Amino acid sequence: MKIILYAEKNLQVDLGIISSNLNRICKKLIFQVGKSVFEINSQLISHPKTYNSLNSTIIRETEQYDYAFLFTDKQYDNNYFFETYENKAIISFYGWNHLTTLSKNNGVVYFIADLIALKIDNSVRHDETTGCIYDFGWNKTAIDLEMRNAFICPSCLARITSKKFSEEKSNLFIDLREMLDILGKSSKWNQDIVTYWNNLNVPNPNIITKKIKEQLSSDIHDVFLAHNSADKPLIEIICNKLKSKGLNPWLDKEQIPPGRWFQDVIQDTIKKISSAAIFISNTGLGRWQVVELRSFISQCVERKIPVIPVLLPGVEKIPNEFVFLNEFNWVKFKNDINEEDALDNLIWGITGKHPKRH
Ligand SMILES: [Zn+2]
User: Fold this and answer.
1) Ligand 1 centre and the CA of 186: distance in Å?
2) For burial by CB atoms within 10 Å, which of 12, 192, 201, 237 has the most?
């Protein structure tokens, strides 16, 4: 399970140290710190309005993760610590210093543990304060006790261990226990969990994070090359040219039956691409049906993925059946596919930066 973390500017937490140490102690959970800027442009957080107004770069970045946790000092309009929406949870540290003397870093680990605990089992929450991770916490000051105790009460433990869990949930439960163990160890001595970890002198926890980063970045492609398989030799040349410029294009190689291709492949692909180039030649679009292409493009537009129609040599204008492509700027290879200007324009469309003008 992959989790991405964000902190709003000025929030005093060290997500880098927290994620690398959680990666070290957890077996199933993989943590990453998000690159996009997280900002809430209103005084209060409201559900789902604030979630819907998150900027598109965060939405895009979080799509490949199972869960995104976004930490802020701002207050919910119902004064909750957090709510969840789709794969996201905005977590509020509002009024923290009145609730506990512990660091917000301990709070970050507590909330992650709490949300993972709910992922494992959300059938019961205690109304009363017991210090168990499954407390609901009507009284927010209970969080101080919950971080110091950092435990699962006997009745919750019995309930959870009696369930027949999938292997994934069993592994999540092991990770949850590791997180609670370390949270309790630091919190009961009033210690910042980041200081606790720094004093451990763990050799290079960043090595683990680096490996994950490499694994994740290979999943993401700068551009999807939609084309008619009759044009494949030409598209392969363009694909190689893009690679030589340091881009990571996606060219489908597998033979997938036409009917299944759109549903199975495109829905998955669209999450892994940053732009889409639609190649149009005199042979048309092949297995792409007009309806499919229109649906694909409207999904790209919805996700703010740039769409670039590319006219291959011999095509003067967008064919009538693809008239909806006229709302985008085209790239046009006039006479042959080695034209530098056209390639530069294509790279411009993909990256947003003109290769020669920067
Ligand atoms: Zn309990």
Assistant:
1) 21
2) 192
